[in-house]
């Protein structure tokens, strides 16, 4: 059932496996550090630079919330009409549809761990970018803390950033007698 007395047209089956290791990244604007966790333990702490308060009159702060690694590219060219730039980056890991990534940023070396200079991305050294790229997988969670800029619903795979009531209200889950999803 998909809701309102409607049913799917056919049954579908798939085979997949999940990783045996639980990985998570947590970027904290207060400490300017990114912590990489594996199975609940910190395995790496990395100095970062997040989005600046303002660039060219635009709020450039990184979004705060629970995101996931949406894609991974060893090399990419970032183009922004809003900020009028085009730049090549290494180790790009997408967090939002609107273009926030974790990536190597050699130009940010002096800012890492102490100030925010990016257009919203989480900047790391190329060396740490490669380490992160090899560490994370598609779908791994990334939590960004203390930026003061809310993650817009739908700007990426943002389901993990929703509270349960909001998630159920927007789902096709049938309601039980208690009003919860079933």
Describe this structure in words.
The chain has one domain (23-169): L,D-transpeptidase catalytic domain-like (Beta Barrel), CATH 2.40.440. Helices cover 9% and strands 32% of the residues. It contains 2 helices and 11 strands; from the N terminus they run ββββββββββαβα. It has a 5-stranded mixed sheet, with helices on one face. Strands 7-8-9-10 form a 4-stranded mixed sheet. A hairpin with a 2-residue loop joins strand 2 and strand 3. The model has no long low-confidence stretch (mean pLDDT 90).
Quick take:
The chain is mainly β and 182 residues long. The chain is built from two helices and eleven strands; from the N terminus they run ββββββββββαβα. It has helices spanning 126-135, 164-169, and strands at 23-28, 33-38, 41-47, 54-55, 58-59, 65-68, 71-80, 85-94, 101-104, 122-124, 141-145.
**Alpha-carbon Rg, integer:** 19 Å
Q: Strand sequence of the main sheet, in spatial order? A: 3-2-1-11-6
Task: Return residue spans where pLDDT drops below 50 for at least 5 consecutive residues.
Answer: none
Total strands: the figure is 11
- Using the 3D structure, state the CATH architecture: Beta Barrel
Protein traits:
2 helices, single chain, five-stranded mixed beta sheet, globular, 182 residues, L,D-transpeptidase catalytic domain-like, four-stranded mixed beta sheet, mainly beta
